[in-house]
Amino acid sequence: MSLQMISTISNSSLLQPGFSLLNFDGHVFFFGQKGWPKRSCPTGVFLLDIKQNELKMKPAFFSKDSCYLPPLRYPALCTLRSHARADECQYIIHGGKTPNNDLSDKMYFMSLVSKTSKKVTFQCIEKDLGGDVPEARYGHTINVVRSRGKSMSVLFGGRSYTPLAQRTTEKWNSVVDCLPSVFLIDFEFGCCTSYILPELQDGLSFHVSIARNDTIYILGGHSLQNNTRSPNLYKLKIDLPLGSPAVTCTILPGGVSVSSAIVTQISDTEFVLVGGYHSDNQKRLVCNTIVLEDSKIEIAESVSPEWTPDIKHCRMWFGCDMGKGSVLLGIPGANKQLIPDANYFYILRCKGAEEDKEEESITQICSQTSSEDPGDSTPFEDSEEFCFSAEANSFDIDDADTYNEDDEEDESETGYWITCCASCNIDINTWVPFYSTELNKPAMILCSSGAGHWVHAQCMDLSETMLLRLSEANVKYFCSEHVDLNKGLQTPQKVVCLKKQPMKPLRKKKTMKLSTSAKKSFLRRLFE
Questions:
Q1: DSSP structure class, residue 505
Q2: Contact at 8 Å (CB) between 316 and 332?
Q3: What pLDDT is attached to residue 508?
Q4: Which of 210, 109, 207 is nearest to 158 (CA)?
Q5: What is the rounded CA–CA span in Å between residue 127 and residue 134?
Q6: 313 is in an annotated binding site
Q7: What is the pLDDT of residues 177-226, one digit of tens each?
Q8: Which residues contact 456 (CB under 8 A, 6 or more apart)?
Q9: Among 409, 421, 408, which residue's Cα sits nearest to residue 456?
Q10: Cellular component terms, GO, for this chain's entry (predicted)?
Q11: Does residue 314 contact residue 330 with C-beta atoms inside 8 Å?
Q12: Which of 162, 208, 278, 465 meets the CB 3.0–4.6 Å disulfide criterion with 219?
């Protein structure tokens, strides 16, 4: 094993405990930033560029038919690969914490739509769930199992807030373990079914789950109720016949008492377990090798790397799988740093350079010839940790698109909570969403008067239909204070005079003239 430090990380303040990484076609994307997304990257999804020990972040985009995806921290993620093409996959995202510390119970499917040297576009779709819908939670796991030609997702563990009926003033935002129920979720219909198994007595969170075919192995995890880290190794087997699914659980010997551990796959059947905690204040510096066969699992202690003094003496550490036998580890920075909330990062390689290149070529061949997913590992972190779950690569994308947090405006002065007009009534302390597209900030629109300035759509009395029409159309908008002035400054349009066709004169009716003798003859006959 080798340990290498990443020297420079741009915008490291966004990389805080709880975020995740998504791996599409070998490119790594960051999701779950600290705080709500800003205008420089409204999606909150970034491409991570690791080049020459430097990490840079570049904004990614969503397609027009995508739903809104909040920056969720500590969600459950797993990959769902296509049966037709093994190289096409999408991510399943469930639960997690929003920047307001609200818990989500929604399920999203994210897939890659297009990727160029300048722009990466994703599609995000929210999946409606029915039946025994899992409650909102975080720190849980989700895996994909395959049996008899069918696929389902399996959700287990996590934490949630205390129910409203049981809350007190002193412990209003306290969290509890979720019930140890196993949820089967059908992808096609979104139907959820919960199972209560007698072998699962205590709720677990921040555990490790590894899926292979129709079996899931659950290792470690922390229980809030007992304040213990489970030494048990659970084996969940899911059978998907034509009728109702069958779920069984077996407790196996040889487990590891650990929470927040990281699992990386180094071969088709071999994994490495790194990091985690023995207790609240004791890190686990021992590594283990996990050999996963079709019907059994073996866990043995392996050689650990030479940890640096900073890693040995730090109070906490965090990280996740980077793919192909590599792990990204992070430790808190010193309090005297100029940048607040900065962390130090290391890359732990569990294989040699030659083995890594050989594994890369083998993986590329297998991805073209096989549609089977050899394994799905889902590591999760404690409340002060975050997760990396993809491989770091060098990207040939122009550095001009690199996200720079210093370019963002101070929203407290020039952002959403400004006084946009004389009648502005938007207050950060009392504001509530008015439009269906609003979540945590008021909708704004740019007034094209002069150099331009932003105004609140609600203060302009814009209907939601008009707001959407203006946002989609390429037209200039003028606020209520500048619309009359703008009309006065406009050059009057040239009036085109219409040529009038001359009216034809009326023709006089022809009259017949009678002679005097004829008139006398006519009158004589009239009175006879």
A1: P
A2: yes
A3: 57
A4: 207
A5: 13
A6: no
A7: 999 999 999 988 889 999 999 999 888 999 999 998 899 999 999 999 88
A8: 420, 424, 426, 442, 443, 444
A9: 421
A10: DNA recombinase complex; nucleus
A11: no
A12: 208
User: What residues in the chain have per-residue pLDDT under 50?
Assistant: 84, 335-336, 338, 353-354, 358-401, 403, 405-414, 489-491
Sequence-separated (6 or more) residues with CB below 8 Å from residue 58: 46, 47, 49, 397, 401, 402, 403
* Residue recorded with tokens 């930033």: 33
User: What are the sequence ranges of the domains in the chain?
Assistant: 2-354
In this structure, which topology does domain 2-354 adopt according to CATH?
Answer: Neuraminidase (2.120.10)
Beta strands 61-62 and 120-127: pairing type?
A: parallel
- Kindly state the tokens that stand for 295: 């019907």
Q: How far is 85 from 371, CA to CA, in rounded Å?
A: 6
Is residue 479 annotated as involved in ligand binding? yes
Contact 59, 40 (CB under 8 A): yes
Backbone angles phi, psi at 103, to 5 degrees: -95, 140
Q: Is 459 annotated as a binding residue?
A: yes
> Could you report the per-residue pLDDT of 19-30, keeping only the tens digit for each?
888 888 878 888
Q: Per the annotation, does 222 bind a ligand?
A: no
Cα distance between residue 304 and residue 311, in whole Å: 13
On whether 456 is known to bind a ligand per the annotation, the reply is yes
* 113 backbone φψ class: left, alpha, beta (φ>0; ψ -120 to 50): alpha
Write out the two tokens for 192.
Answer: 């959820």
| 83 labelled binding-site residue | no
DSSP string for 111-157: EEEEE-SS-EEEEEEEEP-EESPPPS-BS-EEEEEEETTEEEEEEE-
Burial (0-12, 13-18, 19+ Cβ within 10 Å), 172: exposed
89 among annotated binding-site residues: no
Q: pTM of this prediction?
A: 0.68
For CA atoms 160, 162, 164, 168, give the dihedral sign: negative
Q: What 3-state DSSP class applies to 274? A: strand
Closest CA to 73 of 106, 33, 111: 33
What b/e readout covers 185-206, taking b as 16+ CB neighbours within 10 angstroms?
bbbeeeebbebeeeebebbbbb
